[in-house]
Amino acid sequence: MMLAKSKRWVSAAAMVVATAAAAPAGADTTCGVASKTAWNVPDGGLVISRTGGVIRVILDAVNEWGTHTVLSNGYDSWVTHATATQPGQQDACSVPIKRTDLSNATPGAEQVTLPAIYWFYFGSRNIGSAVIPTRTSGGTSPGGVDGMEWYSGNSPDDDWGYYQDDADPWVFFPGGSNRGQQVADFEWNWPNYGMFGTAATDGIYRIQSDDGNYMRYSFYQYMNMRNVHKGNADGNTGVVCSTLHAWGSWRSGQGGVLPFSTYSQAEKVNAANSLYNKIHGECDSKTGGNIFSSNFWKISIGCLGYDVCARASNEVLNEFMIDSPSTSDDYWRNVRNDPNQLPYSVSPDCLAGWNNKCYATGGGSSPWGWDYGRTVTWSGSTEYACWE
After folding, report:
1. Is residue 316 domain-resident?
2. Beta-strand runs (E) in the chain
3. How far apart, in Å, are the Cα atoms of 328 and each of 94, 313, 315, 365?
4. Which of 132, 179, 213, 375 would be a feasible disulfide site paired with 367, CB 3.0-4.6 Å?
5. Secondary structure of 3-49 as H, E, C letters
6. How far apart are CA 366 and CA 371, in angstroms?
7. Could you tell me the pTM of the whole model?
8. Residue 46: which residues within 8 A CB-CB, separation 6 or more?
9. Mean pLDDT lowest for which of 80-94, 188-202, 216-230?
10. Which of 163, 159, 173, 161 minimizes the C-alpha distance to 230?
């Protein structure tokens, strides 16, 4: 593909042996040894995974499988995705979580090396030749990921793309158009980006929107993706992993990825209650595993008269429901209880074309919708890598 910017593989000097300990390269950068540096996913292949965390709570509540999507730039190259680091705590009884870490979650849309995305998925684990189960295969996960599968964006048969609101919305694509690669190349060659160098790798690239602001990770996208799926994005709107690639598909001319309808009131209530209960319950029980670190509960010491866990939970719920991390429970509960405010978003399942919440399933639903879930296999030697 033609590169609009120079993105290189990690330098030889950055290689380390597999026994090296992980070490941060910066405040928002995680580094470590990836035991695998290649996979079987070609340029334009869409990878959907199922992992833990707060996003899984939301999607489990609406009976969806995938929790994260990554777009491959090649078998041993880079990937494009959107993600958020865990928010930081602060020693404040009234506002226990740093609000900007929720409202301006970073890194958002970024491009990292394949060893970096391996570290993102598996950390220091060496999964060896273990087969990661797909949505339909079942089986035991090698750890860190409960499921993973990839979809080709190169349909051998004729396919269609859909542009909502156009006078003639259906666009014909002949077989072999490789629409997935067109989307991946568009995102790769997108001219607005910032490069962040580290001591260990040649760089991490964060994607900027048309207005020059970085595409933040917006938890509110799960409630209302606004018009990101129609190619409209600015730094304030933000993206999540699936809406980023819906944006790329529309902007690259490869068709829209659209929901057919909103989620139901019952699904919204279930998602909101499940998320609140998980966060509040883990905070109360002093356990980790959610959006907070395992030491979050310690800030409640000395906060007599404050329900710190409730305030923290309200911050998270409000960021999801109103795009503002207020500590009041009035806002998110009002949205939860209002049947006229229903979630409208493109999920990972919808991006793969098999979710009935999309306007179509299979061919015509997305560049990848024609395909079935394929097994992801990893290979290659060890490499030191970083991701933000």
Report:
1. no
2. 30-34, 38-39, 46-50, 68-72, 78-84, 107-113, 147-151, 159-162, 170-173, 193-196, 204-207, 374-375, 378-379, 383-387
3. 10, 10, 8, 39
4. 179
5. CCCCCCCCCHHHCCCCCCCCCCCECCEEEEEECCCEECCCCCCEEEE
6. 10
7. 0.90
8. 69, 70, 71, 72, 150, 151, 153, 180, 245, 351, 352, 367, 368
9. 188-202
10. 163
72 in any annotated domain: yes
Strand 374-375: give its sheet, edge to edge.
Answer: 193-196, 204-207, 107-113, 78-84, 68-72, 46-50, 147-151, 374-375
**Is the dihedral angle over the CA atoms 70, 72, 77, 78 positive or is it negative?**
negative
| Model confidence band, residue 195 (pLDDT cutoffs 50, 70, 90) | confident
Domains identified in the chain, total number: 1
Range of the domain at 184: 23-261+341-387
309 assigned to some structural domain: no
* Placement of tokens 């949505």 in the chain: 135
Instruction: Evaluate whether residue 348 is within a structural domain.
Output: yes
Distance, CA of 129 to CA of 287 (rounded, Å)? 32
Place of tokens 């597999």: 18
Total residues belonging to the chain: 388
322-364 pLDDT tens trace: 999 999 999 999 999 999 999 999 999 999 998 877 778 888 8
